[in-house]
Every structure is written in structure tokens, then in C-alpha cells.
Amino acid sequence: MCGIVGYVGDRPCRDILFRGLRKLEYRGYDSAGISIISDGRFELLHSVGNLDNLEAILDQMAEAGTLGLAHTRWATHGRPSNENAHPHTDCTGRFAIVLNGIVENYLALRAALQAEGHEFTSDTDAEVAAHLIERAFRGSLQEAVAEAYRQMEGHFTCCAIAVDEPDVIVGIRKETPLVVGLGEGENYLASAIPAFLAETRSAIFPEDGEVVVVRRESVRLYDLEGLPVDREVQTIDWDEEAAEKSGYETFMLKEIHEQPTALADTLAERIGQDGEVVLDGLGLTPESIKEIRQIIVVACGTSYHAGLVGKYALERWARVPVEVEVASEFRYRDPVIGPDCLCIAVTQSGETADTLAAMRLARQAGARVLAVTNIVGSQATREADGVLFTRAGLEIGVAATKTFLTQVLVMLLLGLYFAEVRGHLTRKQVRSYSDELRNIPRLLGDYLADGAAEHVDEVARDYAFNRFFMCLGRNLSVPVAMEGALKLKEISYIPTDAYAAGEMKHGPIALLEEGSPVLVVATDSFVYDKLISNVQEVRARGARVIAVASEGNEALKEMVDEVFYVPRTDEMLAPLLAVVPLQLFAYYVAKNKGEKVDQPRNLAKTVTVE
Ligand code: AGP
After folding, report:
1. Known catalytic residue: 2?
2. Which helix (H) or strand (E) holds 38?
3. Where are the beta strands (DSSP E) in 39-164?
4. Most ligand 1 atoms within 8 A of CB, residue of 305, 308, 352 to mutate
5. Helix 427-449 / helix 259-267 crossing angle, nearest 10 deg
């Protein structure tokens, strides 16, 4: 899950490529490099660590060249080092490549190439591409890249340049992202749109196995045999400002504060005049919805937690059984699914390898496949029968926040829609929920505008150096607690467990000692009293309890150490509010510990490898 940028045009491209990399830094930041063709030869620069280190040596590279490739890395094969940084070149120094993803048969290819005398300078899987292109080149980089592609197994995006053809970049993808940006007298290739959003909003999304040949004045696509392929040009509706911090200290804090807008945008045109739910792009008829006997939600990480909230809504409202599956397990478990099953893949990036594979598995078993994703043109939109977009806008912070909230919203809307279609909720009942949903963006906006962040920061200072945390919930607040725990783990690196509170006495309560911090999601619900007994249990073991509660619940103040009040709403909708103080708590614990919140160690925003 690296970031690739390519440019060909009239302008000196060193800084254009670097700016593009900066926009993709969330995809990987353990090493980086740039290669530019000028005066018939390559200029190459590598650095280890995040892009600050590459920026520090950028002036060692002549600015002149107008065609080049750049790469920011998330290591899979070979430690972060200058040797393993991309671009890689071949033995002759005439070809340079960058690659995102994994070449699964690289060991066999490497051995065969070495047997033919090729010398490798890195430990990466990716370097084989440079040597395969070198071996196949007969004057056409396009054909050489196509040949290399035929020999490489796995899922990857590879872009190549050649000093023998100094006016062309050739790119190709297999189940990992590649997008072409169309400019005036210049063109771009990239792993994701933000790399060129400041320059152009016109983009083409090549399919797997299509060879993209990019020149200053043209972009052509061909199949592996060299036959031309037509692809529609799409216009990206994100504004460039989306890729900036807009005055916030980090992208994560900005994105937490963008959640009211993200919810409002995701809700737009999805509640009709009469309060009914409208889901364009669903790809399911009312008849087929009535025939669904089972729903399987496949997802990873934060998206998995959004899927869990969806389970409660779909089962409670639409009375259809729902299994929520960790995609990396589901894909190898030989699950029992069939044509009467709907598979819902929740994935903000739309590129997560495990989730995509789970979608394909469900499809092969005859299930209908629905994607809930945030990215137009992503692979998930190609694998699904229907797509419901979360409209959170670009999310750059590696720790997902606004995309989680909009995923939860879409899952709730899906629950209401299915419930009415399957006759389990009346229009009047649906309207009462949709009316309340319409309030949520405003309630959340007021909550954030009313100094919520400052209050949470104050409390977090007192907890930032704890050795571990526990997050508890019951019913719908269990996935909220799980999401709060994941945020703490991801950005503060403090071990945090989340449990269904009723499970504590069956073991985890043994972890508690005097002063152990326990976060409890205690918003109003029909199991509130049960949760309060669990609060008493942990208090009795000396725990310090921080509760997330519904506004006006003054009594709780007496029973816990700190309370984060959130606006009151229906318990089924409460996850849309209750998770926000947990996002902020994780943020400020990490910040007070001095951690790099936007680029947590060992993580990347989009996980395109399994
Ligand atoms: C969440 O903060 C993480 N970035 C990670 O768990 C993420 O949710 C997971 O990798 C799934 O990503 P997706 O939604 O793009 O499929």
C-alpha cells in the first residue's frame, strides 16, 4: 500500500512529483524516491523514513526533467532502506519502475533472472519488474510492460519509464489502484486522486490488465495484445482544499470536525418527502430484498465495526439474520452462502485486498454483492452489483473517523429501507427515525462547536500515560466501544481491549487493579441498567471510569470519574454521536504522548495486500 505518482508534460516535474507524493503520504511513509529522465539519463533519489527526509535532499536532483515517477513506500518485502526504496532500475540503468502491491511469484522470477545474469540491488519483490521489462524490451516499453505483467502473479500496480523512450510513462494494474489524471499538455498517473487534484479533476480509471500509455499530449489504453481500449473520462467532485488541513493541527482532528458535514452530505437525497429512505445505486429490487434469507457483512478494521452496528439495525428493524465477518478470515473459511444471501462489503477505500477477495468469494457462491464505500472508481465499485457511497470526502488521517460515521449512517439507512420493504416497519415508524436522523448532523455540529474537544483534551491529559485501557459497551454500544479501542491502539499505541460489558466477569475483569482506566459507552438504552451494574463491578475493583452518556443524565456523574455527555437521540442512532468523544479521547491521549497522529507507526491508510 504504497503511493505512486507519474508526470509527463512541459513543466519541470521534480517538485510536481514531490507535491503529489505529499498528498499520498497516508498510503505509506517508511521510504521514498523519485526518478526523472533528463538529457537521456535517469536522475534517481532515494530516502528512508517519511517525506521530510526526501524533501531535505530534493535539491540534489536537477529540476529540469519533464517526465518522471515517484513513490512513497509501505514495506512488505525488504526493510525500509535506500536500497529497497523505489524507483528500482534494471541492470543497464535504462528502465525505472515503481510498484504498489505484491508480486507473489517474485522469488521464482528473481531466481530465473539471476540465472540469466541479472543482478539485483534490493530485497524487494518489486525489483523483478525492472529486470523483466529489461529482458522483454524490443523497442516498445508498452509491449515490454505487457510482457512483464503476464509473468508477474499477485496484485500490484506497476509504472515504468525508459531512457530509450523519454516521452512516455507506461502503467498497468492488477487489483490495486491506478488512476490517470488528464491535464492540458500534461498528464498524470497515480495510486489515488489527491496526487493530482490540485492540477486537474479529469480522470480515467483503467481496468485490470489494461496497458496505459501516457504522453504529454495523449493518454491511450490498450489490452495486453495491443488492441486499443476506450475508457470514459470522469470528473472528480472533491475540492483541492479537501487535501489540506484547513487550519487544524492534523488531518485527523480536521476530519473529526468535518463529521457533521460528512453526515449531512451522506444523508442528502436519501430521505424522501414522506420520510421514506431512498437508496440510489442499491442494485436490488424490493422483490429481491424480500427474498434475502441471510446477510453477510465483510470488512476489516474500523469498517468491520460499522458493519457490526449495521447488524443490530438490520436484525432489529428488518428481521433478517446478519453475520459480520472479518474479511481476512471469511475468505479462507469456506463459508456456507448462496443465492439467497446478500453480501455487504464495507470499505472506505474500496481497495482493501481482504475485503475485495471476500466479495469475489461471495459472488462466486451466487450471493448478491453490495459495496458501501467512500471512493468513486475504487475496485469495490467494480466487484459489486450495487454501490452505496458514503460521502465523507477525502479522508487522509490513517485512523478512520468521518468515514466510520458515514458508514454507520448508510448501514442505518439500509436497515430502515429493508425494514419498510420487508414490511417490518411502517412508513410512520421509518419517518420517526428518518426525522431524528435529519437532526444528527446539527446535534453533532453543536456538540463539536460547544468545546467538546477542549473538554476531552483536559481529561485525556490525565490518562495519557496509562499502560492500558478497557472499553465497555452493551448491545449497540459494543461496536462503538470496539471502535474507540481501535482508535486508542492505532494512534496512542496503548494496549486497549474492548468487551461486551456482560463478558467482564467471565475473565477480563481480572485485568483490573487500582486506578485501571475503563471507558464505558453508557448512552441511554434498554440495557442501560445492566450496564450500570457492570460499571459498579469495575468500580469495585478500583477502576477509574470515564463514561460517554446522554445529555441530562446527571445521576451518572455520581457513579463515575468523568463523563463525556453527547446530545440525546434514539438509542438506535446513538452510535453516530457516542463514538465522537472516543475519537477525540484517543486523539488527545496520543497527542499528549507526543505521537504522530496522522501517520501512526506500522500502519497505512489503504491495505492493498493480504
Ligand atoms: C482504521 O482507522 C484503519 N485505518 C483500518 O482499520 C481500516 O479501517 C481498515 O484497514 C479497513 O479499511 P477500508 O475501510 O478502506 O477497507
Report:
1. yes
2. strand 31-38
3. 41-48, 67-73, 88-89, 95-103, 154-162
4. 352
5. 160
**In 3-state terms, what secondary structure has residue 322?**
strand
Cell of 311: 447488524
Segment-wise mean pLDDT, segments of 10 residues, the chain, 610 residues: 93 95 86 92 92 93 91 88 95 96 93 97 96 97 98 95 96 94 96 90 93 97 96 80 76 96 94 95 96 97 98 98 97 94 97 95 97 91 94 91 98 98 98 97 96 96 96 98 98 97 97 97 98 97 98 96 98 98 98 93 86
User: What pLDDT digit, counting tens, does each position of 422-448 carry?
Assistant: 999 999 999 999 999 999 999 999 999
DSSP symbol at 227? -
Beta bridge partners, 342, equal 295, 368
117 alpha carbon – ligand 1 mean position (Å): 42
Instruction: Give how far Cα 53 sits from Cα of 56, 86, 190, Å.
Output: 5, 14, 21
Instruction: List the grid coordinates of 215.
Output: 504522453
Atom of ligand 1 nearest to the CA of 403: 14
Ligand 1 atom, smallest distance to 407 CA: 14
Q: At what angle do helices 127-136 and 141-151 cross, to 10 degrees?
A: 120
464 touches 585 (CB < 8 A): no
Confirm or reject: Cβ of 349 under 6 Å from ligand 1: yes
Q: At which residue does the C-alpha cell 502491491 appear?
A: 101
Strand order in the sheet with 95-103: 88-89, 95-103, 154-162, 165-174, 211-214, 219-222, 228-229
On the 0-12 / 13-18 / 19+ scale of CB atoms within 10 A, 479 is buried
Render pLDDT for 112-133 as a digit per residue (tens, 0 to 9).
Answer: 999 999 999 999 999 999 999 9
Ligand 1 and 352: CB distance under 6 A? yes
Kindly state the DSSP code that residue 2 receives in the 8-state scheme: -
Measured CA to CA, the distance from residue 342 to residue 370 in angstroms comes to 7
Predicted pLDDT of residue 414: 98
φ, ψ at 179 (rounded to 5°): -130, 145
DSSP secondary structure code for residue 207 in this structure: P
Which alpha helices (DSSP H) does 331-471 contain, by range? Answer: 353-364, 379-383, 402-421, 427-449, 452-461
Cell reading at 429: 415508524
- Atom of ligand 1 minimally distant from the CA of 352: 16
Give residue 607 CA to ligand 1 midpoint distance, Å: 7
Distance 166 CA to ligand 1 centre (A): 38
What letter does residue 295 receive in the DSSP assignment? Answer: E
**What is the distance between the alpha carbons of residues 75 and 77, in angstroms, rounded to a whole number?**
6
Q: How far apart are CA 145 and CA 133, in angstroms?
A: 6
